[in-house]
Amino acid sequence: MKQKIRKGDTVEIISGRSEDKKKRGEVIRMIPTESRVVVQGVNIRSRHKGQTQAGRRQIDAGIVKFEAPIHISNVMLVCPKCNKATRVGFSRENGKLSRICKKCNADIDA
Ligand SMILES: [Zn+2]
């Protein structure tokens, strides 16, 4: 399957929440069924711990920060060769499918 973005890639956020725009981070999780990715340090949400449980208030009311998934159309791959956010092409050589940077034509997976 032709996947433009893979786990471990560095991506740049091209749209979405303004504080995340232009941010870069590593893809730490893929959610292929939703076409979403989780990017380290991007799209941070807070979840409050310590909901009441069985009518008893919990003392631990900490806040857990986590990265929420982003739709894959809101991110662009950062080419490891030229360090620019780029569109991705594909090339097949010797039966191996490689991703090609549209900016510098480098083989991203080489
Ligand atoms: Zn490049």
From TrEMBL:
<comment type="subunit">
    <text>Part of the 50S ribosomal subunit.</text>
</comment>
<keyword id="KW-0689">Ribosomal protein</keyword>
<dbReference type="GO" id="GO:0003735">
    <property type="term" value="F:structural constituent of ribosome"/>
</dbReference>
<dbReference type="InterPro" id="IPR041988">
    <property type="entry name" value="Ribosomal_uL24_KOW"/>
</dbReference>
<keyword id="KW-0687">Ribonucleoprotein</keyword>
<dbReference type="Pfam" id="PF17136">
    <property type="entry name" value="ribosomal_L24"/>
</dbReference>
<dbReference type="GO" id="GO:1990904">
    <property type="term" value="C:ribonucleoprotein complex"/>
</dbReference>
<protein>
    <recommendedName>
        <fullName>Large ribosomal subunit protein uL24</fullName>
    </recommendedName>
</protein>
<dbReference type="InterPro" id="IPR057264">
    <property type="entry name" value="Ribosomal_uL24_C"/>
</dbReference>
<comment type="similarity">
    <text>Belongs to the universal ribosomal protein uL24 family.</text>
</comment>
<dbReference type="InterPro" id="IPR014722">
    <property type="entry name" value="Rib_uL2_dom2"/>
</dbReference>
<dbReference type="InterPro" id="IPR003256">
    <property type="entry name" value="Ribosomal_uL24"/>
</dbReference>
<comment type="function">
    <text>One of the proteins that surrounds the polypeptide exit tunnel on the outside of the subunit.</text>
</comment>
<keyword id="KW-0699">rRNA-binding</keyword>
<dbReference type="InterPro" id="IPR008991">
    <property type="entry name" value="Translation_prot_SH3-like_sf"/>
</dbReference>
<dbReference type="GO" id="GO:0019843">
    <property type="term" value="F:rRNA binding"/>
</dbReference>
<dbReference type="GO" id="GO:0005840">
    <property type="term" value="C:ribosome"/>
</dbReference>
<dbReference type="GO" id="GO:0006412">
    <property type="term" value="P:translation"/>
</dbReference>
<keyword id="KW-0694">RNA-binding</keyword>
<comment type="function">
    <text>One of two assembly initiator proteins, it binds directly to the 5'-end of the 23S rRNA, where it nucleates assembly of the 50S subunit.</text>
</comment>
<feature type="domain" description="Large ribosomal subunit protein uL24 C-terminal">
    <location>
        <begin position="42"/>
        <end position="108"/>
    </location>
</feature>
